[in-house]
Amino acid sequence: MISSTGIALLGAIVGAYMFLRALLHFTQDAKEPQAIENAIPFISPILGMATKGADFYGAMRDKYNLPLYTLRMPGSRIYVVNSTALIPVIQRQFRTLSFTAIESKLARDLMGVSKSTDEIISRNNTRDEGYLMTFPKYIHPAVSAGPGLDAMNRRSVEVLAESLDRWARTGPTMIKMFKWVRHELLMATTEGVYGPKNPYRDPAMEEAWHRFEPGVMMFILKLWPRIFAKESFQAREYMGKVWERYFEEGAYKEGSKLIQCRVQINDAFQIPLNQTAKIEVGGSLAILANTFPSTFWMVYHIFSDPVVLEDIRTELFAHVKEVDGVCIIDLADVKGSCPILLSTFKEMFRYNGIGVSARIAMEEHMLDNKYLIKKGSTLLIPSRVQHTTPSVWGEKVDEFSHKRFMRQPGIKQPTPIAFRGFGGGTTLCPGRHFVSTEVLMFSALMALRFDIRPVGGKWLRPTTEKSPLIAAIPIPDWDIDVEICPRDDKKWIVSFSGYDKDMEISAEDIGGTTTNEEH
Ligand SMILES: *[C@@H]1O[C@H](CO)[C@@H](O)[C@H](O)[C@H]1NC(C)=O
Ligand SMILES: *[C@@H]1O[C@H](CO)[C@@H](O)[C@H](O)[C@H]1NC(C)=O
Ligand SMILES: CC(=O)N[C@H]1CO[C@H](CO)[C@@H](O)[C@@H]1O
What we know:
Helix 13 packs across helix 15 (273-288) and helix 16 (291-304) runs parallel beside helix 22 (432-449). The protein is built from 23 helices and 13 strands. Strand 5 (321-323) and strand 6 (326-330) form a beta hairpin. It has a 5-stranded mixed β-sheet. The chain has helices at residues 4-27, 44-52, 56-64, 86-92, 100-111, 115-122, 131-143, 147-170, 177-194, 203-212, 216-220, 225-228, 230-248, 257-268, 273-288, 291-304, 306-317, 331-337, 339-352, 383-387, 390-393, 432-449, 507-510; strands at residues 68-73, 76-81, 97-98, 173-176, 321-323, 326-330, 356-361, 365-367, 371-373, 378-382, 450-454, 481-486, 491-495. It is α+β, with helices and mostly antiparallel strands. The protein has a single domain (115-355, 388-510), classed as CATH 1.10.630.10. The N and C termini lie far apart (69 Å). It binds 2-acetamido-2-deoxy-beta-D-glucopyranose (3 copies). One 2-acetamido-2-deoxy-beta-D-glucopyranose is lined by residues 65-67, 82-84, 389, 391-392.
């Protein structure tokens, strides 16, 4: 027997369900991309995302096989892109389908700038004269081929080479691989960017960074980080104070061209230095967040497969000159002429990448004259979907194939648009040349000078299910205990002479493809 309260409750649930179905039906325009996952209207998509994490979009592609589909969420719509062909179409509409509109939200929620600075950053944010549209132009001379980028890379490579030299002299050492890589890259990156007064030389700052980073999502989703991500919030405030000293004392003047350009644009837009200090949390995130996991996975893929290691070593040793027992290498040569290393790097991005590019529709738009995109909705381009499509990458799409991106006679290259390691169009990561160089140079030096042996003898790939979905490359769920052993006790002279040609990393670097104003 069901009690009358039970019947009433059941009635209410059925009523609510019918209401939601009807609501969804009557508010979904027939011209919009098909709405999917409607078993429980507005709720099923959230449950799907929560349970499947980074695999959600791939699962939806396989289940529905639609070029573009709608996920109805409470109070908003998300359109998710599968079709590679739609990507350039979306990227061309960079004012209507805006990334800067998302950036200005991030600036406010993540960095915690003042109201007036928020107003400056958000003003005209889809127009050429706005802060966010101007930003890439200001930093362009610092992050693309030229003396500014060379100087920054040279300093970072110097720091890496010196540190690895110390490790080599120490002899075989047990380390936790992710933690170790993270520290090496943090020091090298921040020395390159911030110069001799680099605040990260203080271990308290490094520690603050690691307390801040796990809470990033709480800031972005506005889940009251002051209360629910207290450590992260306090770390951000602490770093803000440190940056304030750094900028107000003029320490940035001894730093890289990049940090100087950032101050310049803020000056031009009349953002005071104490707010530039707040914004620097975003600056650090841009240079650090993906660098650590990228380097970790590079080292993992190279050392866990003897074939990859052997191929890369052979390629690298062709650039080593030995004079009177001293090994000499100019890493600038390596950057330009080690196709296997570069291909392995891209494959690392393809294989591991979970980045999702996002756009907000500033007005109603008919995409490709076919799909109605409603004002205020979000468009997502999950890189994982692009990176795992068999029609693009072939049968062996699920394998790590370190030579996949090499130009080989008779083998057709996959369309560069489907490679989204660094985003694309207006969201293309402007720091990709700096960051890639560091990751490549570290990997190269490790392969040349060290062997790495996992404790227990076997490489076990860590899962990445717990990785926060903010990074484009996932953080491993657990660390790997390894022993690093120097391969010889020779003296090494490592230099980085400068390199005046950008590497071909993204479709935009290769040229002839798609997109709007490329930064
Ligand atoms: C999804 O995208 C892939 C890659 O472009 C394509 O091969 C496939 O046909 C797409 N599915 C639909 C229905 O568009
Ligand atoms: C930041 O600097 C501006 C201009 O120098 C000043 O007016 C403002 O009071 C400062 N804000 C804080 C929070 O110190
Ligand atoms: C061209 C344009 O729309 N410029 C606007 C930028 O923002 C300021 C302040 O909101 C407006 O006064 C301008 O008209």
